[in-house]
């Protein structure tokens, strides 16, 4: 490993001595060094495996060894001349540091905090990697903690340290003082009050006085605020199975509870009905309850008793409302606090208690420590959560699943999370703790109770939003979702656990540069042009009523196959982020296809080694729906659906002899060198990583503007039919998919490149015809009959006749058998491993072909199996036993060429 050039940067030792002269305690840290491959790794023994490259101490005691002693500092840097310089923070050096990480949006968050809470004073500031910064303040007791000020903004105080200029970062950048903000140019300023409040050690939470008596002003309505249908829908929407079952029995007029279980259950159920629907009158509620109460046939719990219970529950409900207002006013210290029954806040409401809602019986405090509180049975105030969590809106996705949006405060920053309604009421709510929500295993049940009470109480006034959980077209074709963007009808995009996929779909760089790169690829060849058009063809599949398809380009490496695939996916986002690579399983491929719904899917099969997986790819793409799979808990996973254009490349063809006919019909495959220039391919990859994702949304807007109306869509489909009639391919279905690419090429040329209609159509048709000629040639070379595979096998036997006729058992591909068929023809046994090699070379599926040949009597079965066990030098091995066709195999010729002397050994079947 090579150290950095000491002449390329100011002396690190001199910098350390300068800081020590200012009273800042310093010590050395391991520096990044270049590995033989040129990558910067840590100089410590862990090397490339070190996760703290350039940031952890070289000395035994770390920050505890920090000093201002000049002799010690010189000794350290004479021993390690390239060591990074670290400054101890806190009382030791008299400085606290705010560290904003640009990669974690810390810089952007810090700017937002300055806009809302006040600007930071001029003070010593250093630039870190990727646009981040270290802001130095006079020591004021800040804690050394990650995310103490906000997510992405850490602080360093007592016991902490920071890496100082001109140290080297593992990215290759050097820490540097901002112009005019070095310690020699500006003194360290005092941190603003809002920074000190947020970054100092937590103070003890104050104790609150016992609540005063609450006076209820609420009365049950005399007129219903909901229709009966809405009322039943409201009551049915519960995560409590006992309430759901009781509502079902109540609607059917059956007894609410078994005999002997009326007392406690009736009270709880009546409370649920009232708190869930405060808009319903007592008369309506009792009328709907009457058949079930009568069916219980209980003298102690007749209709009069139920009416009395309901009256007392109404009092409890009114008291809960009054108590909520009382607690909120007491905790806020104001006499005119907003009642909890007010309208819900908007998402852009200012932080603090005024932007939050409380459920009946709960309150929110915005003093020194935010929290959700509730009075206990003894009148004492207990904390439910350390910060408020509220439900602010609700909605359904395209599959009818109910979602709710929860909101909480974390590090003076508001966080919003939308999740399925069922997760809020189950143990999965603890997953929010990892996103900063104030949840623990001990308080999660209390938070769930609060959220359910709040949702029930505010159900009528909660905003309704539309949720999208997949990319691509909505069911009504009025919206298209790509990343976090909804084109068309507004709505929120929710794809839990798919942050990397969504980030890859974000546009980056220049739209003009992206177009220039795409055109440079498109104009290289007809294959490159059709590949470019495939990026725009994916969303047309659903508009034209076509099934999923595969586009397969195979051939020698270094000819630009991956570059044209990158161009295809760059239409929608960052190519490398949307690529499916590696030895994927069928289930994993189905998951990727469902994520890429109505978008192109880039599949690189060069690493796929599983037997039959390449041919299975085309079949999986065309099925468009995954199978039901059982989970470890015994449940069934939801089926995944897609409508995708899969672009598959590799050094071997995708389709095989004997493969599924449906997959072949939905696949356009060519052997081509789309670019033929490795240099252009490299430049394309580099450029598309910086500029991507602009053309796809623009194309969707053009489709919506010009073609998605009923009449115009019929015109688009008619144009596709006319183009399909002009395409010459092996099957009519292949012609439809070839016409799809040509149509996408025409539309992209017109709406993305701005070309005239006539020129666009002529250029696209010319490329389409050349592409179809290559597809037709490939289709005819890949014969679909098992006879072609049998011919290939016999040719192999002829070419390797010595290995089959010889009795030497070493490295033999197979052997001749004593068995003969009804016509007297001999049988040749081909070992299983050899047959797999033959199938790979001959591009056919072994099982499919052997099954068809067995039906024709050309393969001998053993107890229903396609293979038989044969003896070779005393060992039993599996082999496929085929009838030997002497004429096709050219055995006589082969025998004359490979005439061998008798060999010792005994081979029997």
Automatic annotation (TrEMBL):
It comes from Corallococcus coralloides (strain ATCC 25202 / DSM 2259 / NBRC 100086 / M2). Coiled coil: none annotated. This is Bifunctional DNA Primase/polymerase. Residues 16-195 form the DNA primase/polymerase bifunctional N-terminal domain. The keyword Hydrolase applies. Keywords: Hydrolase. One of its GO terms (molecular function) is hydrolase activity. The keyword Hydrolase applies. InterPro entries: Cch_HTH, DNA_primase/pol_bifunc_N, DUF927, ORF904-like_C. It holds the Pfam family HTH_56.
């Amino acid at each position: 490993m090579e150290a950095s050039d000491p002449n390329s940067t100011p002396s690190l030792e001199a910098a350390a001595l300068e800081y020590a002269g200012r009273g800042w305690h310093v010590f050395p840290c391991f520096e990044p060094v270049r590995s033989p491959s040129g990558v910067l790794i840590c100089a410590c023994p862990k090397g490339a495996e070190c996760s703290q490259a350039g940031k952890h101490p070289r000395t035994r005691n770390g920050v505890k060894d920090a000093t201002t002693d000049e002799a010690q500092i010189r000794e350290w840097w004479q021993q390690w001349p390239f060591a990074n310089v670290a400054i101890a923070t806190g009382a030791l050096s008299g400085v606290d540091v705010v560290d904003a990480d640009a990669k974690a949006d810390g810089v952007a968050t810090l700017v937002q905090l300055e806009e809302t809470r006040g600007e930071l004073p001029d003070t010593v500031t250093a630039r870190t990697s990727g646009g981040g910064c270290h802001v130095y303040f006079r020591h004021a007791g800040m804690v050394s903690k990650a995310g103490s000020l906000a997510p992405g903004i850490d602080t360093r105080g007592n016991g902490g340290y920071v890496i100082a200029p001109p140290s080297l970062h593992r990215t290759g950048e050097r820490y540097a003082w901002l112009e005019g903000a070095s310690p020699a140019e500006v003194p360290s300023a005092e941190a603003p009050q809002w920074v000190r409040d947020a970054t100092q050690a937590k103070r003890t939470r104050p104790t609150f006085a016992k609540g005063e008596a609450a006076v209820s002003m609420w009365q049950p309505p005399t007129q219903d605020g909901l229709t009966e249908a809405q009322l039943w829908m409201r009551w049915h929407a519960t995560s409590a199975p006992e309430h759901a079952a009781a509502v079902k029995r109540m609607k059917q007029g059956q007894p609410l509870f078994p005999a002997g279980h009326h007392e406690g259950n009736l009270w709880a159920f009546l409370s649920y009905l009232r708190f869930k629907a405060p808009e319903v009158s007592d008369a309506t509620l009792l009328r709907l309850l009457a058949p079930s109460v009568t069916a219980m046939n209980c003298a102690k719990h007749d209709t009069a008793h139920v009416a009395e219970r309901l009256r007392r529950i109404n009092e409890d409900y009114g008291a809960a409302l009054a108590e909520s207002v009382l607690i909120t006013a007491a905790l806020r210290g104001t006499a005119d606090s907003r009642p909890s029954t007010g309208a819900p806040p908007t998402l852009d409401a200012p932080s603090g208690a005024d932007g939050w809602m409380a459920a009946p019986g709960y309150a929110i405090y915005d003093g020194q420590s935010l929290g959700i509180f509730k009075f206990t049975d003894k009148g004492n105030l207990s904390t439910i959560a350390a910060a408020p969590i509220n439900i602010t809106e609700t909605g359904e996705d395209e599959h009818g699943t109910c979602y709710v949006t929860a909101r909480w405060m974390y590090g003076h920053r508001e966080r919003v999370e939308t999740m399925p309604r069922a997760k809020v009421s189950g143990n999965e709510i603890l997953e929010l703790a990892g996103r900063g929500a104030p949840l623990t295993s001990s308080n999660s049940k209390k938070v769930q109770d609060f959220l359910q009470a709040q949702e029930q109480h505010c159900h009528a006034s909660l905003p309704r939003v539309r949720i999208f959980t997949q990319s691509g077209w909505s069911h009504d074709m009025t919206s298209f979702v790509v990343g976090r963007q909804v084109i068309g009808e507004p709505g929120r995009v929710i794809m839990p656990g798919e942050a990397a996929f969504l980030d890859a779909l974000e546009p980056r760089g220049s739209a003009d540069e992206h177009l220039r790169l795409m055109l440079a690829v498109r104009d290289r060849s007809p294959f490159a042009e059709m590949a470019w058009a495939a990026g725009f063809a994916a969303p047309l599949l659903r508009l034209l009523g076509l099934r999923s398809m595969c586009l397969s380009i195979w051939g020698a490496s270094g000819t630009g196959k991956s570059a044209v695939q990158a161009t295809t996916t760059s239409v929608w986002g960052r190519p490398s982020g949307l690529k499916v690579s590696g030895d994927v399983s069928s289930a994993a491929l189905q998951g990727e296809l469902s994520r890429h719904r109505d978008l192109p899917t880039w599949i690189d099969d060069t690493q796929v080694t599983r037997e039959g997986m390449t041919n299975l790819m085309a079949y999986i793409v065309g099925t468009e729906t995954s199978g039901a799979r059982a989970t470890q808990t015994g449940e069934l996973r939801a089926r995944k659906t897609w409508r995708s254009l899969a672009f598959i490349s590799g050094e071997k063809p995708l389709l095989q002899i004997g493969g599924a006919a449906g997959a072949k019909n939905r696949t356009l495959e060519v052997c081509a060198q789309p670019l033929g220039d490795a240099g252009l391919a490299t430049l394309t990859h580099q450029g598309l990583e910086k500029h991507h994702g602009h053309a796809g949304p623009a194309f969707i807007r053009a489709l919506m503007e010009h073609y998605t109306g009923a009449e115009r869509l019929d015109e688009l489909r008619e144009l596709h039919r006319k183009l399909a009639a002009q395409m010459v391919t092996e099957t009519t279905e292949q012609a439809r998919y070839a016409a799809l690419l040509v149509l996408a090429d025409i539309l992209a040329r017109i709406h993305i490149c701005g070309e005239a209609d006539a020129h666009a159509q002529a250029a696209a048709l010319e490329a389409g015809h050349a592409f179809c000629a290559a597809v037709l040639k490939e289709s005819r070379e890949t014969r679909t009959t098992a006879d072609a595979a049998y011919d290939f096998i016999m040719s192999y036997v002829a070419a390797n006749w010595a290995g089959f006729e010889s009795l030497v058992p070493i490295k033999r591909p197979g052997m001749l058998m004593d068995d003969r068929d009804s016509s007297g023809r001999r049988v040749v046994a081909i070992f299983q491993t050899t047959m797999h090699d033959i199938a790979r070379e001959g591009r056919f599926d072994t099982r499919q072909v052997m099954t068809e040949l067995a039906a024709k009597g050309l393969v001998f079965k053993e107890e229903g199996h396609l293979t038989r066990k044969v003896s070779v030098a005393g060992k039993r091995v599996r082999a496929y036993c085929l009838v030997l066709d002497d004429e096709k195999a050219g055995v006589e010729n082969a025998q004359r060429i490979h005439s061998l002397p008798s060999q010792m050994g005994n081979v029997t079947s």
